[in-house]
Design goal:
DUF445 domain-containing protein, transmembrane, mainly alpha, 447 residues, DUF445, membrane, transmembrane helix
Length: 447
């Protein structure tokens, strides 16, 4: 009976490995052509086992008759062996039948075990799996024995495999970007940028950056560009400057005086721009450096300056043009990413492929990297197992509970019934041998 129970538990465990309760019910109740063939095999083995029982019964009858007719001592030995064989066959027939139904239809206690104890078997199976397969130690030992880090590294180190992973990642990325609605993402991006900007004061950061730029002399190139462009503009627009100066003169001054003043102002402006352009040590440049240094300090420490910058930031972010620019940034980024993902020779895919090859080589060759990957995988697996152990075991329990008892019984019997009929045959043979041995011993003791 121990072998029978183990075989039943094995079949229960095999059949519960299904994705959902609905699928499990369908799998257990639908008889496939293979199941029908198994059932025919079970019926053939039942006929064989029953035929052997009838055979030993006939042998017992004939041997008993022969013994009464004075056929000799051998008849007693044959009758004893046949009698024990019948007892063994009947006992194993009762045991096998009791697994699936009530023997002879009689409601004998502790029979029809599978249909009546199906739900309890599901609970026991779930607990067994949870305790022996979903424990932290078992998961860690099994994953450590597999060596995922080294195997995955060796696999990724192959260029063909890296190309395959890169292509799959590109496909997944394109699919994800296609599914996302631009309006939703734009709203999220705009809201996130605005919220982040509102929550963080920008003046101190700008001040530190400006202070660093001035200290390193990075602003000097900008000054050079500005004064050069100003000089060139003055050279090209002499008449415009003259007209502007003359137009601002009082009406009572003579025209030739206005022109002289305009020429003088223009020459001074041109001289100032030329000196600013050609003299790195010009006093105006030093004054500009001091102004920028003081402004950088005020941005970091002056309360009024920081408050004005925050008000300006709020006004800029509140403008519709800025919000439209933030929202449209997602469209540009998405188009760029999709184009890069579709192009096999794009810099994005080439860098991803190179990174995968490098990672695979390191994982395959460096034990520390392998240990890190294995530790990460073990940690994830243990977290999943320990967190969702009840859900996993309840899946088994609920699945078994959802099976129809009659259909489940027939399904299990079709799978293991043929092996169980060998128990009846073995019981007949072993019973006969045991009966013969007992008869021989009893005859020897009696003699």
């Amino acid at each position: 009976m121990c072998g029978i129970t183990e075989r039943v538990e094995q079949m229960e465990r095999t059949d519960t490995e299904t994705p959902s309760r609905t699928t499990s019910y369908r799998t257990m109740t639908a008889f496939t052509p293979a199941d029908e063939e198994r059932r025919r095999g079970v019926r053939r083995m039942k006929l064989t086992a029953t035929g052997l029982l009838l055979f030993v019964a006939v042998v017992y009858v004939l041997a008993t008759w022969a013994s009464h007719q004075g056929a000799g001592p051998w008849a007693g030995y044959v009758a004893a062996a046949a009698e024990a064989g019948m007892v063994g066959a009947l006992a194993d027939w009762f045991a096998v039948t009791a697994l699936f139904r009530h023997p002879l239809g009689l409601p004998i206690p502790h029979t029809a075990i599978i249909p009546t104890k199906k739900d309890q078997l599901g609970v026991s199976l779930g607990e067994f799996v949870g305790e022996n397969f979903l424990s932290e130690d078992v998961v860690r030992q099994r994953l450590r024995a597999v060596g995922i880090g080294s195997r995955l590294g060796a696999w990724l180190a192959e260029p063909d495999h890296a190309d395959r992973v890169t292509a799959e990642l590109a496909t997944a990325l394109r699919g994800a970007l296609t599914v996302l609605r631009d309006s939703d993402v734009q709203a999220v991006v705009g809201e996130a940028i605005t919220r982040r900007a509102d929550a963080q004061e920008i003046a101190p950061g700008i001040g530190k950056m400006l202070e660093k730029i001035v200290a390193d002399g990075g602003h000097k190139r900008v000054v050079d560009l500005v004064v050069t462009r100003a000089h060139d503009w003055l050279v090209l627009h002499r008449d415009d400057v003259m007209v502007a100066v003359e137009g601002g003169a009082p009406g009572w001054t003579p025209r030739f005086v206005d022109r002289k003043v305009g020429e003088r102002v223009y020459k001074e402006l041109l001289r100032f721009a030329t000196e600013m352009r050609d003299m790195p040590s010009h006093p105006a440049r030093g004054a500009l450096d001091r102004f920028l240094t003081d402004f950088a300090s005020d941005l970091q420490s002056d309360t009024d300056t920081r408050a004005r910058v925050e008000r300006l930031k709020g006004e800029v972010l509140g403008r519709g043009e800025v919000q439209d620019l933030i929202a449209s940034a997602w469209t540009a980024v998405r188009s760029m990413i999709v184009a890069a993902a579709e192009d096999e020779r794009s810099e994005l895919r080439l860098r991803v492929r190179a990174a995968l090859l490098s990672l695979g080589s390191r994982m395959a060759a460096e034990p520390k990297v392998q240990e890190k990957v294995d530790s990460w995988v073990e940690g994830v697996a243990v977290h999943i197992v320990t967190t969702y152990r009840k859900e996993i075991t309840s899946l088994i329990t609920d699945t078994v509970a959802g099976w129809d008892a009659d259909h489940t019984t027939r399904k299990i019997e079709a799978h293991i019934g043929r092996d169980l009929q060998f128990i009846r045959i073995n019981g007949t043979v072993v019973g006969s041998l045991a009966g013969l041995l007992i008869y021989v011993i009893s005859r020897g003791v009696g003699a």
